[in-house]
Amino acid sequence: MWRSLRFRLLAATILVVLIAVGVTAFVATRRTMGEFQRYVERRSPLDAKKLKRPPFKFKKLPGSDMRELVTPDRKKYAAYYQALEEHARLENDWYEEDQRNLHRLIDVRGFLWT
34 φ, ψ to 5°? Predict the structure, then answer.
């Protein structure tokens, strides 16, 4: 049986296929874990604990039960407003990255095993 050329070719083919599938699974798993970890670790500048946030203050509108939000001083809370602008930029970048990744997923969906 070990001397049969057919058996040796079949065993070699099976071994090559198993190695190829194993390497592909390993690489795909590592890439997926890395991308997911990067997604989870996204941090906004607004998440900083030392960032001084402006208080929400309301003033009563005369002759009404309604209240109006008082706009805080932009100079006093300059770091907050700068972080807010950076957060908006990052949100836009993350949205575009998510869209690119979703398009990549749609492009390869025909090749996925289900």
Answer: -65, -45
